[in-house]
Amino acid sequence: MNARARNRVSRQPETAQITDLSHEGRGVAHVDGKTVFIDDALPGELVEWQRVKQGRNFDEGRLLRVIEPSPDRVEPRCAHFGMCGGCVLQHLSGEQQLQFKQKQLMDSLTRIGKVTPQEILPPLQAGSWNYRRRARLAARWVPKKNRTVVGFRERSTPYITDLQRCEVLQAPLDGLIVPLSELVTALSIRNRVPQIEVAVADNAVALVVRVLEPLTDADQELLRRFGREHAVQMFLQPGGYDTVAPMEEGAPLEYRLPNFDLTLRFLPTDFVQVNGPLNLQMIDRAVQLLALTPHDRVLDLFCGLGNFSLPLARRAGQVVGVEGEAGLVARARDNAARNGLGNAQFFTANLADESIGSALWAGKFDKVLLDPPRAGAKEVLPVVAKSGADTVLYISCHPGSLARDAGILVHEHGYKLQSAGVMDMFPHTAHVESAALFVKP
After folding, report:
1. Of the residues 31, 155, 202, 258, which has the fewest C-beta atoms closer than 10 A?
2. How high is the mean pLDDT of the chain?
3. Angle 312-317-319 (CA atoms, 0-180°, nearest 5)?
4. Residues near 432 by Cβ (< 8 Å), separated by ≥ 6?
């Protein structure tokens, strides 16, 4: 079939039986020997659907109606479900969302890494609504609507969902979408404000407004007044992250780790784990799985501002944290000092550099924790192996890169995959956060 023929997509309604969910959370059907991905359809359902895209290897479809619903289908709580790209699984029960994510993890470990854990860890789950304390909201002035639209991107389009509120943002952010739209609309540079980053700390709320042109005095007064009325700290970002500055003096952003008597400070654009309650459980699990003793020397790779390093330092003899972003390393050092931890050291290093093994900090360790970005930790795994560590805990935000690295640790470096399991950091999304424990036999 040539490209022109493929572009002539049939728009006639069809029926299909859904057999599975894709890793993106779309229903999977097989029609006339060809795979079809259908948004918002669930396994076990008979659906009426319409083709929206026809390709050489698979087609894509839009759900028209559910003829025979799955017993796991639930009513989405959000009025914008189906359009907003932020959540794709609100129509699936919470229990089945966890099962879906656990299956993604196990399938990836088996298929990509050729490994199987000896034990499946019980899933970690916190609240599934109003859990998100960090987000980047897009903004766009829309002349036809005579106002600014604020929200997340729509599914599979460059447009912004016209949100009224967000059910997964932590309070008070969940109810600030419309007030933010009205605020940006009132600015003289309303068409030059592309995004607003939001951060909820335990002691404050911060909004970082990206501006592509200078604000007038009246604009600045509008922003300050908004901050006072809604009890939020307002920041401006005229350039890169190094240009972010508060509009008025406010308390440093902090979050607590009460089980370890720790308080960590961070900037509103810093990476912090999105789900605060789940982060507490994740740290508890990490400390439990590593079974730390006061004699252990621990290496924490991709340590950020010390989210794992400092709790580990409360239990271990010494912790060395390594991170690629110098600003996060500086804040990790400050957090250690502020919390009275003299047994934690931090270094800046590019952990994607294959020559990293020659770094001064790359020595002998008893245990290692890794929390890499989506790309994984392939380049630094030789350092892990040479450290002599008998226990390695890998925190992952992408099952594919975890599975690849698990295969390397097991088949090339002699580790055994002791246990693995999911942690529901992003409920109602297809994002899979997980932990895997490796030990030397």
Report:
1. 258
2. 95
3. 50
4. 101, 104, 105, 396, 397, 398, 399, 422
The token pair at 281 is: 């459980």
Whether residue 209 has pLDDT greater than 50:
yes
Catalytic residue among 78, 87, 166, 397: 397
Coil, strand, or helix at residue 197? Answer: strand
Q: Is the pTM of this model over 0.90?
A: yes
Q: Is there a catalytic annotation at residue 397? A: yes
Reduced to 3 states, what is the DSSP secondary structure of residue 58?
A: strand
Q: Which residues contact 172 (CB under 8 A, 6 or more apart)?
A: 205, 230, 231, 232
Q: Could you tell me the two tokens for 156? A: 């599979």
SS3 420: strand
Q: How far apart are CA 40 and CA 38, in angstroms?
A: 7
Q: Check pLDDT > 80 for residue 388.
A: yes
Which segments of 194-343 are extended strands (E)?
195-200, 205-210, 233-237, 245-246, 253-257, 262-266, 297-301, 318-323
Contact present, 280 and 302 (Cβ < 8 Å): no
DSSP state of 132: B
Residue 1 binned pLDDT confidence (cut-offs 50, 70, 90): very low
- Rounded (5°) CA angle 186-190-194: 135
| 59, pLDDT greater than 70 | yes
- Dump pLDDT digits (tens) for 241-259: 999 999 999 999 999 999 9
Burial class of residue 100, CB neighbours in 10 A (0-12, 13-18, 19+): buried
Give pLDDT tens digits for 176-190: 999 999 999 999 999
For residue 143, give every residue at least 6 positions away whose Cβ sits within 8 Å of its Cβ, in sequence order, or none: none
